[in-house]
Design goal:
The protein has 278 residues and is mostly helical. 56% of the residues lie in helices and 3% in strands. A two-stranded antiparallel ribbon has the order 1-2. The relative contact order is 0.08.
C-alpha cells in the first residue's frame, strides 16, 4: 500500500518519496513544482536535501500542487511548522497536534470496521446533492479513483470533489489507499418510506434535465403524454418493470467502465391517483 502524508514525521521525507514513486520516477516533477511555487528548481532541491525549509505560504501551495484534502493539508502544514520550529516547546506542541489528528484517524478507522449502513444524518448529507452518489459509483471504475480524474470526468471543482471524498471515507462508503480511493464496505439502502427517496429522485431528474440541455447524441430521452384505458395501465407498468429487471441482470455482470444514469417515470397527471377530479 502506498504511504500517505500521515505516515511521516518529516515533510521532506514524504515529498522525496512521493516524487521518487511517481511515474517515470518523478522526472520533471521538481521543475513543475518550482514553476507552481514561482521559484527555481535549485531551491526545491535545497529544501528537499538541505536545511532550507518551505515557508508556510509555500507549504499551502505545495498542498494545492499535490491536491491534498483538508485533513492532509492540515497535517502537512504541521509537519512544515515542526521542521521550522525554533524551540523545543513549540516542537512538542506541534507533535501533540499531529498526534491528535493521527488518533482521530485511528478511531475513525476502528469505527468504520464495524459500520454496515449509513445513519440518518449521513443519509441526509449523501442525498443532499447528486454528486455524492456519482463520485461514490465512479470509485468502482479503476480509471476514476483519484480526485483529479473524478474532477475531469464530472467537471466539478477539485475542492468540491475532495470534500465529497472525505465524507465518503468518513462514512465507510470509500476507502483511501495512498492517493487513490475505492468503494468501501458500508451499504446504502433506501426504504420506500425513507424521507430521502424524494431527494434521491429529484437529484437525478435534475441531472436528466441537464443532459437534455446538453443534447448529446449518445444519451436517450423519451417523453410522451398519452391517454390509455385504465385496465391497460398495470400492463404497461409491468412491461417497464420487466425491462428494468432485464437491464439489472446485464448491469450486474457488466465490467465497470462508465457511469450511466437510469431514470424511469410512468405516472398520472391526476391530482389524486384514485379519485376523479371534481
Amino acid at each position: 500500500m502506498k504511504k500517505v502524508v500521515f505516515d511521516y514525521i518529516n515533510y521532506k521525507s514524504y515529498l522525496n518519496e512521493k516524487i521518487i514513486n511517481a511515474p517515470n520516477k518523478g522526472r520533471g516533477l521538481k521543475l513543475k513544482l518550482a514553476k507552481f511555487l514561482g521559484c527555481q528548481t535549485a531551491y526545491i532541491s535545497q529544501v528537499l536535501n538541505q536545511s532550507v525549509n518551505f515557508s508556510l505560504e509555500q507549504a499551502i501551495k505545495v498542498n494545492q500542487f499535490w491536491s491534498h484534502n483538508k485533513e492532509e493539508s492540515r497535517f502537512f502544514l504541521l509537519l512544515v511548522q515542526h521542521e521550522r520550529a525554533g524551540t523545543q516547546d513549540l516542537r512538542l506542541f506541534l507533535e501533540e497536534e499531529m498526534n491528535t489528528i493521527l488518533q482521530r484517524r485511528k478511531n475513525l478507522k476502528d469505527r468504520l470496521d464495524i459500520k454496515d449502513s449509513l445513519n440518518e444524518n449521513d443519509q441526509h448529507i449523501y442525498y443532499s446533492v447528486w454528486y455524492y452518489a456519482a463520485i461514490h459509483i465512479l470509485l468502482s471504475i479503476p480509471d476514476f479513483q483519484t480526485p483529479a480524474r473524478i474532477c475531469e470526468y464530472l467537471g466539478l471543482p477539485l475542492k468540491q470533489i475532495q470534500e465529497a471524498l472525505e465524507f465518503l471515507v468518513e462514512t465507510g462508503l470509500a476507502i483511501q489507499k495512498g492517493n487513490r480511493y475505492e468503494i468501501g464496505l458500508t451499504r446504502i439502502h433506501l426504504d420506500k418510506s425513507s424521507i430521502q427517496i424524494r431527494r434521491h429522485h429529484t437529484n437525478w431528474r435534475s441531472q436528466a434535465i441537464s443532459s437534455i440541455d446538453r443534447n448529446e447524441p449518445r444519451d436517450l430521452h423519451y417523453s410522451n403524454v398519452l391517454s390509455i384505458a385504465r385496465n391497460d395501465i398495470p400492463k404497461v407498468k409491468e412491461i417497464f418493470i420487466k425491462a428494468i429487471e432485464e437491464a439489472r441482470e446485464i448491469i450486474k455482470v457488466s465490467p465497470e467502465e462508465e457511469v450511466q444514469v437510469l431514470t424511469l417515470d410512468f405516472f398520472s397527471l391526476r391530482n389524486d391517483g384514485n379519485l376523479p377530479l371534481e
